[in-house]
Amino acid sequence: VMLCGVCVRLCVCYVMWCLCLCLCEHRMLQLIAGALLGFMMSFVALIYFLKLRQSRSRQTLSHNTNDSEILLKSLATNANARLCLFTKSTLVHLCGYDPSAPSLRSLTNFDIIKMSTECLFARQAKLWGSSDWDPSCSVAQNVSVWLNAFTLFGAIQRGLDGFLVDVVGQEAGQTVELFAATVRMVLQALSEKDPSGYRCMEKDFVGKRGWVFSFDNREYFITTFAPCYPAQHSRYAFGERQSCFILFQPYSSFLWHDVGRDTPHTNWSNPQTVRDKIRVKYRSNGREYPIPDNTDSFPVAHAFVRPLYDSHETVVRWWDPLGCNDIPSSSSTSEPIPLEQKKDA
User: Between 20 and 30 A from 311 (CA), which of 7, 14, 190, 318?
Assistant: First the structure.
């Protein structure tokens, strides 16, 4: 509003000055004044149309819309959605709560891990969080509460590093087996609501190379933390006893932080890349995590829930409802899924 007022005043003064020049007898000055006047009027018209377009965009994203689900679907398919800025009232209307609020319980519960972990960019990470978890409700019911927020997060992504799910309840993360079942149920509940219809959790190659968790055609790496892990473990929860956490990280976030390509090789004595520096820091603090011999063929699902004694010789089959006990990893590393078969699946 202030900018428009200034522009109006400048235009009025400029028009008066041009009129004075037009009244003079010099032909050249009259031509110059006319040209400048035309340029200024074109500039004012451009500003007007830009403001009008911005106003219409705000009306489209207004919290006065009658159908938030339709708006979410349109955002999910709009490549420009990640450039939008949402007010708090708009977020509350679309999601039912503000997933970016620093006071959100899921984010405050995660603060001790965020500030203590060895990850170099964790402290500055911009996260959205799930709504308050209700232990008296089912996993699917809890997921439905923050489903809109997760969908909107996927549509935006730009400038956001992760979506955090806080599962409250001692039984959820008391043992690795219980925690694995919790992760499976959360991911299954999301997969069933996948707007794209792909439903990655229903595929028969979850524990094999070529599978990745996806929702609404966007892929995520998942890191988990739970009270069952000891202090020497890379998934240690730093004393948080009531919550276990599932962090959905868009792969684009690794690019923004220049983590670099995943590789089995580490320069332990003189780390240069961000990834090497993170690995060195984990080792120096006594929480070294195993690095696959071949990062290109390593099934990404094996990294979601780590065994109590962390190694790549065993894997937690968290995706298997028949049992999540540690088993030899060789039984889950069959031939890679061909790209054509993956698309058909």
Answer: 190
| Reported pTM | 0.73
Contacts of 140 by beta carbon, 8 Å cutoff, 6+ apart? 185, 189, 192
CA–CA distance from 77 to each of 72, 156, 218 (Å)? 9, 11, 11
H/E stretch holding 281? helix 274-284
Q: List the structure tokens of 319.
A: 């995706």
CA distance 167 to 174: 12
Kindly report the number of other CB atoms within 10 A of residue 167's CB atom. Answer: 25
Q: What is the DSSP string of 319-331?
A: T-TT---EEEGGG
d(CA 92, CA 96): 5
Q: What is the DSSP string of 129-152?
A: EPPPP-TTS-HHHHHHHHHHHHHH
> Per residue in 311-343, pLDDT tens?
767 889 999 987 655 444 443 433 444 433 444
* Residues composing the chain: 345
Rounded to 5 degrees, φ, ψ at 204 are -95, 10
